[in-house]
Amino acid sequence: MSLSKKIKDLLHNQPPKTENQDDPAAAISGDGLVRFHLLFSGRVQQVGFRYEAQQLAITLKLTGWVKNLFNGQVEMEIQGQPEKIESLINQLSTVGWIRIDRVERQQLPVDRQEKQFIVTG
Asked: Where are the bilayer-spanning segments (predicted)?
């Protein structure tokens, strides 16, 4: 299965995992925005991953944050239209020096206060 297909399945076909399973509105807003917590594994540190992600997020009008973890993974929370999030992940996977082997995700409630995408840690 191609990475593009895996990403599409990841964002569209799996049942949402939210903090509050009894409140579906907590995961998907009325305007179609979604928010995901993502963990990327592979060659994702010391290759410009976070800054590539930030530039793509700004271009795609996505909000959230991204940071390196001590275990070699990159952690991200990202919010926006599902197809734009899919586009960001697909574009990151085409950068020659980045290799995404695995993406774990958890759907989160939308954060209406968030206005930008930042690199932390």
From this structure: none
